Structures are given as structure tokens and as C-alpha cells.
């Protein structure tokens, strides 16, 4: 076996298995390169994150070719592993052979202490779930994208503006999500609309999408306190009457003008 090691932030360590003579792997080639030696072909495979095997030859040619493949012969039909004189085939010890990554990711061998890494496909964001990437002015958390608008609207107009963006006023389901909102959007003195309302039935709080408020809640200890005239929810940070708010919720008149946070 022969090993190659990269010492950088995207460290790749691979081990090449023994060479197989007079064989090539077809139908899985991702790059075709002109090289001067087998070691140069091997080096090119190492530098290509998706390469797990290569074909090299003709052996006695002045212009040999190097074909990099994203599969080994152990992963494909035997009909793809063909006899061809004057060529050699070599593959790496491939931790991706057992398909350890989720179906919406690409497995790359030789990375991390597991021997592989899972890469999200184009248009998806790197992370545990490979979510759709958020546009530049939106912020990502778990499977959602969030946007703060500081231009002030009434609660219902804020709801409408979110809707026209394909979103809704933010629905906060966990302490982790509330903490994300806090650290991402809430400076001292912030007071923004979120998706809570009890306009339909006093005391029965719902999110703007229609789901009932249950489970996680972070009302300030003095809230909600507006009875029938404060029917929409916001989130505050800092000193407000009647006390300090630490990314806690409160109720206000829906006609008051506030910035707002959208989620999609």
C-alpha cells in the first residue's frame, strides 16, 4: 500500500491498494489527464476529492493517459472492470463503499477521522441536514431561513410582507431557535414582531401560519398582559417597562409599528 497525506484545513489521507495489471475500470471516469508517470497519475487522484481509483497506460507509451474514477471496481458491476493489456488499475481504501452518507449528499473518501466526509450537492447548504441554501440577505438555522426587516409595519402588514417573500412571521419552536434569533438579530433595545396572535380568540395564542402555540414558550414573566387590546406578539432585548427582557416575548397592540422577522 502507498499513502498520501495533505497537511491543510481540508486534510485528505488515502491508502492505495496494490496495482492490478492489465485491467481498467470504465463508465465511471470523471477526468482524463495527460501525465508523464504513474506517480503523477496517483498524485492527481489524491488531489481530486472525488477520485477513488485510476487507470494508467499504455505503460510503454511516451504519452500515457491517466483516467480518474469516482468508483472502485468493488462498487460496480463486474462488466465495468475490463481486461486491457499495457494498462494498470489502482484504487484506494475507500470508506465510502458502504454508502455511509445521507442520500442527498456526496461521499468523499479520505477525509476526517472517519475516513470520509459528506458533501451537500449543488444548491444546498453544508450542514447536518443539507438544507436549501439561503439567499444572501437571509440567515440560516437548521432547516429554515430568516430575515430581519427594520422598516416598521403593523403586525398584519408585516405578516403580508413576509408572505410576499414566500415566508411567514417567525415561528419559534425551541430554545435553540430563540437563542439563534437573539444572537443573530437582537441588539440592545430591539423590539420586533414575531408570528404570535390571539386576535381570533382572546388568550388562545396561535402562530401566523395557524398552528396553536404549545410546547416551547418564552414569555417575559409579566407577559402576556394586554387582555383584549394587545393581541399580537413580539420579541424584545434590553430594558423595557416593566423590566429587562432577554429575547423574551410580549404582547402589543397589533396596530403598533415594529420591525419584523420572517422565516421560510
UniProtKB/TrEMBL annotation:
SMART domains cross-referenced by the UniProt entry: CLECT (SM00034), PAN_AP (SM00473)
Pfam families in UniProt: Lectin_C, PAN_1
PROSITE patterns recorded: C_TYPE_LECTIN_2 (PS50041), EGF_3 (PS50026), PAN (PS50948)
Occurrences of domain Apple (ranges): 11-86
InterPro entries: C-type_lectin-like (IPR001304), C-type_lectin-like/link_sf (IPR016186), C-type_lectin/snaclec_domain (IPR050111), CTDL_fold (IPR016187), EGF (IPR000742), Pan_app (IPR003609)
Keyword Oxidoreductase: no
Disulfide links within the chain: 101-118
SUPFAM superfamilies in alphabetical order: C-type lectin-like
Record has Disulfide bond as a keyword: yes
Annotated protein name in UniProt: C-type lectin domain-containing protein
The species this protein was found in: Pocillopora damicornis (Cauliflower coral)
Amino acid at each position: 500500500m502507498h499513502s498520501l497525506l495533505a497537511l491543510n484545513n481540508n486534510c485528505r489521507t488515502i491508502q492505495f491498494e496494490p496495482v492490478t495489471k492489465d485491467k481498467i475500470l470504465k463508465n465511471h471516469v470523471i477526468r482524463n489527464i495527460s501525465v508523464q508517470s504513474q506517480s503523477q497519475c496517483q498524485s492527481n487522484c489524491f488531489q481530486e476529492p472525488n477520485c477513488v481509483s485510476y487507470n494508467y497506460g499504455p505503460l510503454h507509451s511516451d504519452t500515457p493517459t491517466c483516467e480518474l474514477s469516482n468508483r472502485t471496481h468493488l462498487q460496480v458491476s463486474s462488466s465495468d472492470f475490463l481486461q486491457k493489456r499495457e494498462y494498470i488499475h489502482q484504487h484506494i481504501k475507500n470508506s465510502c463503499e458502504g454508502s455511509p452518507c445521507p442520500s442527498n449528499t456526496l461521499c468523499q473518501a479520505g477525509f476526517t477521522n472517519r475516513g470520509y466526509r459528506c458533501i451537500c450537492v449543488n444548491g444546498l447548504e453544508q450542514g447536518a441536514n443539507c438544507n436549501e441554501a439561503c439567499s444572501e440577505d437571509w440567515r440560516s438555522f437548521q432547516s429554515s431561513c430568516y430575515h430581519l426587516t427594520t422598516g416598521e409595519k403593523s403586525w398584519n402588514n408585516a405578516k403580508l410582507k413576509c408572505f410576499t417573500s414566500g415566508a411567514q412571521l417567525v415561528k419559534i419552536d425551541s430554545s435553540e431557535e430563540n437563542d439563534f434569533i437573539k444572537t443573530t438579530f437582537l441588539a440592545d433595545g430591539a423590539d420586533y414582531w414575531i408570528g404570535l396572535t390571539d386576535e381570533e380568540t382572546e388568550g388562545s395564542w396561535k402562530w401566523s401560519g395557524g398552528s396553536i402555540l404549545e410546547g416551547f414558550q418564552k414569555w417575559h414573566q409579566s407577559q402576556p398582559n394586554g387582555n383584549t387590546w394587545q393581541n399580537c406578539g413580539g420579541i424584545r432585548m434590553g430594558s423595557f417597562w416593566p423590566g429587562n427582557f432577554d429575547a423574551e416575548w410580549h404582547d402589543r397592540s397589533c396596530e403598533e409599528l415594529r420591525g419584523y422577522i420572517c422565516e421560510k
